[in-house]
């Protein structure tokens, strides 16, 4: 399984270079920006709210992988905790989530209308007029 993963990683990197060119040499003359110029970067809660049998999903690093958000295995939190977490880090359609623990560095573009909160997951929100995915 590790060899297959390495193979896919190498192929993905080669495909990226083929499509966009070498990031350092920048042969296509792409504009360069610091992420903070285009995006607001924050993270979800680091607290451990109480879990319930019904409620809102709390997405953690284990729920973000392979380009998808898996809501089927999330712990559930109450509406008060959901609202509290979302005051600081509300996830919207088109945002990018990046795990900060475990599967670090596997970003996911939020392609659903989110009704969940995040914990130990980086939230990258495009600034107004800079999001290529809409929102």
UniProtKB/TrEMBL annotation:
<keyword id="KW-0680">Restriction system</keyword>
<dbReference type="InterPro" id="IPR052021">
    <property type="entry name" value="Type-I_RS_S_subunit"/>
</dbReference>
<dbReference type="InterPro" id="IPR044946">
    <property type="entry name" value="Restrct_endonuc_typeI_TRD_sf"/>
</dbReference>
<dbReference type="GO" id="GO:0003677">
    <property type="term" value="F:DNA binding"/>
</dbReference>
<dbReference type="GO" id="GO:0009307">
    <property type="term" value="P:DNA restriction-modification system"/>
</dbReference>
<keyword id="KW-0238">DNA-binding</keyword>
<protein>
    <recommendedName>
        <fullName>Type I restriction modification DNA specificity domain-containing protein</fullName>
    </recommendedName>
</protein>
